[in-house]
Design a protein that fits this description.
Order of helices and strands of chain B: HHHHEEHHHHH
CATH class of chain B: Mainly Alpha
Membrane topology (chain B): Multi-pass membrane protein
Strand content of chain B: under 5%
Function (chain B): Part of the binding-protein-dependent transport system for glutamine; probably responsible for the translocation of the substrate across the membrane.
Order of helices and strands of chain A: EEEHEEHEHHHEHEHEEHH
Oligomer: heterodimer
Radius of gyration of chain A: 18 Å
Strand order of the largest sheet of chain A: 6-7-8-3-9-10
Protein name (chain B): Amino acid ABC transporter membrane protein 1, PAAT family
Subcellular location (chain B): Cell inner membrane; Cell membrane
Low-confidence stretches of chain A: none
Mean pLDDT of chain A: 91
CATH architecture of chain B: Orthogonal Bundle
Number of domains of chain B: 1
Mean pLDDT of chain B: 92
Largest interface: A-B, 30 and 24 residues
Family (chain B): Belongs to the binding-protein-dependent transport system permease family. HisMQ subfamily.
Helix content of chain A: 25-40%
């Protein structure tokens, strides 16, 4: 996807405007507005069932929206004419349950999409994949199968797999929710390095401490709406919305 | 080979009256080998046809077009709910009678012979089970896994070929083994339309030598060994394809 002609890097790289999503008669998203600039790290927090995962999945087109607009680099995502492949090159996603390909080794998992989808040169892809695996501290695990790894290791493979497509934006959907407290740290460290390298990251997370530390901006969602947003210091220390106050008083 | 065992079986016949004629008579020996060869070819062809039908049928079952799904459902109902021998007779005598004849230079032969009809009929019969077996495998592939491929830009076709199919095949392998073994045995029905497979060959031998019990024993042994080989091969395949650490 070439960026829309009107889009320049000083405009939001991801922009959601009045996004509504219903599953049957149940409205999960009730008008979401959210903008992310290039290089920004944005966390979305809120109680379970508030629509956080649905929200993040609309950004790479996995979940179609009922109404409203989702734009990535100025291009409308939910437009029948959109080149889905091009969108997915731009936007990587990492899931709660890792979702690695169980029949392929770690290295193959990372190499598969660039080889099959982008049809890139095998040698280049392999060099890049090995480099990424080393970066996420998985050197030596290249030939292991996903089920032979711990949850934290699998999640780091999933991150490397997404990065190997060289995306401009990374989405993280509760990526530490299925991990034990000890391994959470290693995955968060990987994301922190990524953010430090300037990757645009949008995270749905329940790790409040991490959200506070890493974010440029935090959004609090409840019942399909964004109740409050702002820099982490102000949102966590001085929440204005009563629902945010209530939620934070319980989890912090 | 025959030279080595012939003296023993000739003596066995002389002393006990047990007449294993294929093991000392070269004509019966060649009939036995030919029967085994045709039998193995027949089973291989039937299994191949049934697998192709299974994959295509399982794919068609997920079609967005309702008439396509209905056709697959009707096919499964018809061929699972009628006896394979009736299907075989239907194809051979019913459809065989209306298929064109080919000029062989002076005489005419049907375009599809008895071997061909046996492969078609029993292959289609076995395929109806394979469709359901593959479907169960496809359904066992987690949506989350295919979604991950989708989010990496895989097209639906690539998802099916590189993710769904390899996983579904592994998931349904035990059920598939059962059906392949069952088909290997069902292939012996081709006897009734005179395909010269092992049952047919041996029936020729026992008509000539009046050694029915001995040939029955031989037939029995042949199938036990054959099925044991198939089962072993499938078990090896299953072990080779096993995903390290998966499901433990």
């Amino acid at each position: 996807m070439t960026p829309s002609e009107n889009w320049t890097p000083d405009q939001p790289i991801v922009a959601l405007r009045d996004v509504h999503k219903s599953f049957g008669t149940f409205e999960v998203l009730k008008g979401i507005d959210l903008t992310v600039m290039k290089g920004e790290v944005v966390c979305i927090i809120g109680p379970s069932g508030s629509g956080k995962s649905t929200l993040i999945r609309t950004i790479n087109g996995l979940t179609p929206v009922t109404r409203g607009s989702v734009q990535v680099e100025g291009q409308e995502v939910h437009d029948g004419n959109l080149d889905k492949l091009a969108l997915r090159r731009k936007v990587g996603i990492v899931f709660q349950q890792y979702n690695l390909f169980p029949h392929r080794t770690v290295l193959q998992n990372v190499m598969m999409a660039p080889l099959l989808v982008l049809r890139e040169n095998r040698k280049e892809v392999e060099a890049r994949a090995r480099e990424l695996l080393a970066k996420v501290q998985l050197h030596g695990k290249e030939n292991a199968y996903p089920a032979e790894l711990s949850g934290g290791q699998q999640q780091r493979v999933a991150i490397a797999r997404s990065l190997c497509m060289r995306p401009d934006v990374m989405l993280f959907d509760e990526v530490t929710a299925a991990l034990d407290p000890e391994t959470v740290g290693e995955v968060l460290l990987t994301i922190k390095q990524l953010a430090a390298d300037g990757m645009t990251c949008i995270l749905v997370t329940h790790e409040m401490g991490f959200a506070r530390e890493i974010s440029d901006r935090v959004y609090f969602t409840d019942a399909g709406r964004i109740c409050e947003s702002g820099p982490p210091a102000s949102l966590f220390d001085n929440p204005q919305d009563p629902r945010t106050q209530e939620f934070l008083s319980k989890v912090l | 080979m025959l030279d080595l065992i012939a003296p023993y079986f000739e003596r066995l016949y002389d002393t006990t009256g047990l007449n294993f004629s294929p093991f000392y008579d070269s004509y019966d020996w060649s009939r036995l080998l030919e029967g085994m060869l045709v039998s193995v070819k027949l089973i291989a062809a039937i299994v191949a046809v049934s697998l192709v039908i299974g994959v295509i049928g399982a794919g068609a079952q997920t079609s967005r077009l309702r008439p396509v799904r209905w056709c697959v459902a009707a096919y499964i109902e018809i061929f699972r709910n009628t006896p394979p021998i009736v299907q075989l007779l239907f194809f051979y005598f019913g459809l065989g009678a209306i298929t064109p004849q080919v000029d062989m230079g002076g005489w005419y032969e049907p375009m599809i012979g008895s071997f061909g009809w046996a492969v078609i009929a029993i292959g289609i019969f076995g395929g109806s089970y394979n469709v359901e077996i593959f479907r169960s495998g496809v359904e066992a592939v987690p949506t989350a896994t295919t979604e991950a491929a989708e989010s990496l830009g895989f097209s639906n076709f690539k998802i099916f070929v590189y993710i769904t199919l390899p996983l579904a095949f592994r998931f349904c392998l035990p059920a598939l083994t059962n059906n392949i073994v069952s088909l290997a045995k069902t292939a012996s029905l081709a006897y009734v339309i005179a395909v010269p497979e092992i049952t047919y060959s041996l029936s020729g031998i026992w008509s000539d030598n009046v050694n029915v019990p001995e040939m029955m024993l031989l037939l029995f042994t042949y199938y036990i060994v054959l099925v044991a080989i198939i089962a072993k091969a499938m078990a090896l395949l299953e072990r080779k394809l096993a995903l390290p650490g998966y499901g433990q």
